[in-house]
Structure formats: structure tokens, C-alpha cells
Amino acid sequence: MGTDLNRPLGQNRRPEPQAGKKTVLSAGRVLAGIGIAVLAGISTWAVLAPSGLRQTEKPQEIAEGTPEATPDQMNGGAKPDDTGSKPTPLPTSGALSGANVEKTLTEDGSIITKFSPGQRSGDGPALIQVERTKGQDPRMAALPNDALLDDTPDGRLPIIGANGERPMDQYARPWSGARGIRIALVVGGLGLSQTGTQKAIRDLPEEVTLGFAATGNSLQRWMQEARRDGHEILLQVPMEPFDYPDNNPGPHTLRTGLDAQKNLKELHYSLAQITNYTGIMNFLGGQFLSNADALEPVMRDLAKRGLLFLDDGTSAQSLTGTLADTIGVPHGFADLVVDGQLERIAILRKLDELERIARRNGTAIGVASAFDESVGAVSQWMEEAGTRGIEFVGVSALVKDPQQQ
User: Fold this and answer.
1) pTM
2) Which residues fall within 8 angstroms of residue 147, CB to CB, at 6 or more apart?
3) How far apart are CA 139 and CA 101, in angstroms?
4) Where are the domains of the chain?
5) How far is it, in rounded angstroms, from Cα 309 to Cα 317?
6) How far apart are CA 400 and CA 383, in angstroms?
7) Among the four given CATH numbers 3.40.47.10, 3.90.950.10, 3.20.20.370, 3.10.320.10, the one describing domain 138-404
């Protein structure tokens, strides 16, 4: 009765084995256990072997290229590294293209993947970042850069941007950068005649710099058309000539008889007429340019605004070079007025002379006005001269720039 309490619930207790049979039965049980273990092992191998996850070696041995279970074979059958010293990089695509990929199988069956930048082989394209270049995206050339404009009571005036960029750089016509023979041609007086302005923009090569008279008409419209056609532009500011007022450049002329504040007011009126110009050019102005007291405040204002000054070279008494060097204003001088005689053959001869100056000095600047004869002669001559190894550039490429020294 007492022994029934030790029996498993619902089961009958087996009779005790006889002493002589105990050893035989124990051996049988051992053999049966071994058989079950073997069957279990075979079953486990059958399940795991097809997937390639049978682990027979240590993780570091697999990483070193063991044929039975390398990560590369587990991921597409790639050949192991011939050296057998490093995990085999796998080819990649998309965002990971060019990276080295290493895979390692750990003892618990996990795969660790390591990505690291690969060395360039020297073939194929490479992205090279260069310094900021001059010029504006041609698709945006007719639109001003608002970061380079200051809204004032006088209008929107050019300024140097917060990042140091100058209007002279933003609106410059890009060029090759080669140090061959270079010529800049400036055709001014645009805006004074509607038909003449339209003809000049239509017929002149895009390498010609166009000068817009601040006293002209429809300037914003013509400026946009010229910029869309690839021209660099200057603003011609009226200045007092020696025979003023008999020879009067028009309203808002800068004059030696005005104080600095009044002259700056007149200058700002002119500067606000259009945008997208690299600098200014004098319209007449022999008297004004020879007076240091009158000219200095103007030059300082130009320096502050990041504009260049082009002297048309008609006044031997001009002080623009001296003051520009002192103040730090980008500046240049025209070598020739090519249409002093308004006749086509005479203009072509002057252009040939300009070429001789350029070959002697390396560069030259010529100026003309937007007369029909001048536009026609300049267009013809440039087409011919281009075959003689001359590069035509915007005038900003040839001025003396303190920032480039």
C-alpha cells in the first residue's frame, strides 16, 4: 500500500528485474540511445547542409577563405581571394559601388558585414571640386543676384555680398583662362537709339562687352536681352568734359563743381538704372577724371560696391589709374577708340592696329560706339581674327584687379 504512493499517476509499476538480467538490459538501453543520437545527427545535417550553414571551422578560418563555408560562397558563389589572407570583397552597386565589403560568419551562425571605402583604380570619372569661378549660369544671366543688391532710397544699388562675392565676378563673361592673345572689345552708347541698340545686340558676337548709357531708354529690357545673348555689360556714367556746358552729357552728370555728397547722389541714380553689370565706364568726362578731389569719392564708392572702372582712354590727364591703385579699384584703360573715323575701312584698319598691340603686349582693349558702321566692321573683323588664334574676352578679364595680385 505504501509503495503505491511512489508510482506515477495512472501507470502500473513494472516488476523489479532479476539480478541476473540487469546488466544486459542496461547495455541495450545504451545502444538504443546511441542509435537515436545518430539518427538525430543525420537529420540535423540533412536540414542544415543544403543551406550552406554547416559550421566546421572557427570564424577566423572562414573569413580567411575556407572553401566549404566562405561568406562569398554563401552570397552568390564568388571566388575567394587568391591570396587567402583577407575576406573577399563583394561587388556592389548603387550607393555602395566602389566600397570594400567583408563578411564573417560567427560561431552562432550570424553573418557580420563590414563596408569600407575602396581605393580608386585611376579609371573612370572623378568629382573634382574647384574654387569658385567667375560668371553666372547662362540660364539666369538676365536675372540679378539679390544678394548683391542693396535697396536704398536711390534705388537698388550693387554691393559686395556677405560671402565677399563682387558684382564684377558674378556678372563677368567666363573665358578659357588660357594666356594667349586676348582682346576685349567694348561697344557703348546702347539705349540711346532703339533701332541701334537692337541691331548691336543682334549682330555683335556675344564676346563683345556692351556699354549701356545711364541716360538711355528701356535699359532694363535691353540689359536682359543682352545678358541672355551672353554679353558682359558696363554702365556708362555721364561725367563733365572740358568744354562743359557747351558739350553736355545730359542730366545727372558728375561735375567738379558739385560737392562729394551731391556727386554720389548723381552716381547712385545712374547705378540704379539697371543691374547685372560688372562696372562702369566714363561717358565723356575729361574734366571730371582729371580732378582728384571730385574723382576720389566716386572711386571709393565703386571699391565698396565691387565694381570695376574702365577709362575709355580719351583723356591724357585722367587720374583714374593713380586713384584706383591707391584705393584698390579694379580698373583698365582702352588702348584704342576704333571708330574715331566713322568709315568702315578706317575702322577695320584701327582693329588691325588693335591686334598688333595685343600681339605685342599680350592683351588689348578697344572701344567703339553702336553706330551701324562700327557694328558691321567689328562683327566682320572678329570673325576673321578668331581664325588667327585670338581669344575675345569680356573686359573684366583684362582689368587690373587688386584681388588677383
Assistant:
1) 0.68
2) 161, 162, 163, 165
3) 43
4) 57-117, 138-404
5) 16
6) 27
7) 3.20.20.370
Q: Where are the alpha helices (DSSP H) in 49-138?
A: 59-63, 71-74
Strand partners, 236: 213, 281
Q: How far is CA 179 from CA 231, 241, 339, 364, 397, in A?
A: 21, 37, 28, 13, 11
Question: Which residue carries 553702336 as its cell?
Answer: 370
Nearest-angstrom CA–CA distance, 17 and 133: 102
How many whole angstroms separate alpha carbon 275 and alpha carbon 136?
A: 13
| DSSP class of 254 | B
Q: Do 159 and 150 contact (CB within 8 A), yes or no?
A: yes
Give residue-wise pLDDT tens across range 122-164: 555 444 434 445 667 778 888 999 999 999 999 999 999 999 9
| Integer angstrom CA distances of residue 159 from 67, 130, 146, 166, 400 | 70, 25, 10, 7, 20
Tell me if 230 sits within 8 A of 204, measured CB to CB.
Answer: no
Residue for grid cell 551731391: 262
Task: Give every CB contact of residue 223 below 8 A, 6+ residues apart in sequence.
Answer: 142, 212, 233, 274, 275, 276, 277
Which grid cell sits at 349?
584698319
Dist CA 181 CA 183 (whole Å) = 7
pLDDT digits (tens, 9 = 90+) for 265-300: 999 999 999 999 999 999 999 999 999 999 999 999
Tens digit of pLDDT for each residue in 327-347?
999 999 999 999 999 999 999
